[in-house]
């Protein structure tokens, strides 16, 4: 009897537990399914609404972003050039953003003629400072993320250790000063933003050191190239991927822009490794089999209107750590760019 009772007790307790188990499992499966559907729907919606504006769409970085944009089909890109959106005209900027709103603005437009900026100061400031200030105000108003591209030329280049982002800036020319004023305007307006300082940008597009060397190498037997300015080249396509991966980390993974005490975070991005312009030129000719002798010359032997930093190597630890980025070595990326230029007969 006692045994039967015990069994009955056991059986009913066991059955109850089983029923409870099935109810919980069923409820969980419904919840998980609905939750999954909700997440899927949310992800899909988020994927649809990610809109990106790239200013300076016809520049090196702008065209590199355009070139890779099909690999980021979750985003809807708009590229503007000077005709669509003239950043030297504040009223045009206001009018444009009254009509358009974006999740992300990547500001690749800039006045980049370093030597000419010494003469065209007002124009340089209007694009590199005043327009950036306006974009920061718009980003704040529209709750857009602003990724602004800045330069190694904000540093004076007097040290011989890679610069970290927190180090003092001290630009040596108008271009660098105008870019720093643009950075400072973003800092004072403090929208959701990131500033990326890069250096020695080159690509298949537009004008850059690689294309200039290839042109001169064809015309001359010998070239003098500066060996006492040290930096790191940056293949624009690497920076373009880096920028979009950074955005993906922030938005797709719902990660906050990592910032301290309301400061807009600054990051460095260039390719890995270090060289002088002389080493850079040598590598370009080696990879293209151009028969042109390169002579190392000193900065003082090639005077330019704008003074340049002697050393502007950027320490990239912060961007690599915060966004888990791996950055290619400069010679590997140069090789890739040269191969692409070769395919296009070195004349794109
Ligand atoms: N190039 C470098 O070595 C280097 C080094 C460090 C940092 N950076 C920074 O990296 C970013 C991208 O540089 P990049 O080499 O791609 O420059 P880029 O090839 O000179 O392109 C800049 C773009 O800005 C556009 N722009 C100039 N004035 C404008 C205006 N008033 N309104 C609208 N657009 C205007 C230019 O249009 P147009 O084609 O019509 O002139 C050009 O397409 C810039 O912020 C630059 O300061 C560059």
Question: Nutshell version of this structure?
Answer:
With 348 residues, this protein is α/β, with parallel strands linked by helices.
Task: Provide an overview of this structure.
The chain has 348 residues and is of the alpha/beta class. It has one domain: NAD(P)-binding Rossmann-like Domain (Rossmann fold, 3-Layer(aba) Sandwich). Helices cover 48% and strands 14% of the residues. It is built from 10 helices and 12 strands. Strands 2-1-3-4-5-10 form a 6-stranded parallel beta sheet, sandwiched between helices. Strands 6-9 form a two-stranded parallel ribbon. The chain is globular and about 55 Å long. The N and C termini lie far apart (96 Å). The site of NADP nicotinamide-adenine-dinucleotide phosphate (NAP) has 27 residues, from helix 2 and strand 4.
Would you spell out the secondary-structure blueprint of this structure?
Blueprint: H1 2-49, E1 51-55, H2 60-68, E2 76-79, H3 90-99, E3 104-107, H4 121-142, E4 145-151, H5 174-189, E5 193-198, E6 201-202, H6 209-219, E7 222-226, E8 230-231, E9 234-235, H7 236-252, E10 266-269, E11 275-276, H8 277-288, E12 293-297, H9 317-323, H10 330-343
Parallel strand pairs: 1-2, 1-3, 3-4, 4-5, 5-10, 6-9, 7-12
Antiparallel strand pairs: 8-11
């Amino acid at each position: 009897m006692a045994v039967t009772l015990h069994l009955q007790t056991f059986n009913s307790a066991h059955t109850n537990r089983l029923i409870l188990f099935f109810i919980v499992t069923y409820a969980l499966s419904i919840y998980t399914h609905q939750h999954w559907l909700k997440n899927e729907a949310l992800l899909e919606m988020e994927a649809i609404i990610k809109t990106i504006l790239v200013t300076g769409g016809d520049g090196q970085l702008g065209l590199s972003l355009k070139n890779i944009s099909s690999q980021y089909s979750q985003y809807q890109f708009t590229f503007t050039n000077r005709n669509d959106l003239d950043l030297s005209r504040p009223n045009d900027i206001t009018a444009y953003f009254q009509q358009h709103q974006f999740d992300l603005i990547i500001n690749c437009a800039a006045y980049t003629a370093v030597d000419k900026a010494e003469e065209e100061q007002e124009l340089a400031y209007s694009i590199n400072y005043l327009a950036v200030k306006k974009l920061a105000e718009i980003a704040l108003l529209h709750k857009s993320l602003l990724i602004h591209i800045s330069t190694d030329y904000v540093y004076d280049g007097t040290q011989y250790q890679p610069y970290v982002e927190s180090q003092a800036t001290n630009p040596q020319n108008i271009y660098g000063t105008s870019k720093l004023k643009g950075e400072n305007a973003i800092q004072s307006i403090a929208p959701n933003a990131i500033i990326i300082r890069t250096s020695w940008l080159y690509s298949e597009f537009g004008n850059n050191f690689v294309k200039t060397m290839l042109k001169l190498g064809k015309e001359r037997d010998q070239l003098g190239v500066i060996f006492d300015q040290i930096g790191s080249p940056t293949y624009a396509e690497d920076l373009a991927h880096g920028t979009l991966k950074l955005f993906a980390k922030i938005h797709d993974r719902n990660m906050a822009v990592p910032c301290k005490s309301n400061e807009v975070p600054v990051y460095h991005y260039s390719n890995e490794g270090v060289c002088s312009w002389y080493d850079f030129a040598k590598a370009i000719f080696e990879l293209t089999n151009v028969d042109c002798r390169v002579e190392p010359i000193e900065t003082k032997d090639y005077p330019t209107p704008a003074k340049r930093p002697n050393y502007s190597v950027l320490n990239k630890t912060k961007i690599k750590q915060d966004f888990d980025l791996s950055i290619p070595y400069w010679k590997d990326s140069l090789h890739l760019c040269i191969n692409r230029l070769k395919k296009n007969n070195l004349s794109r």
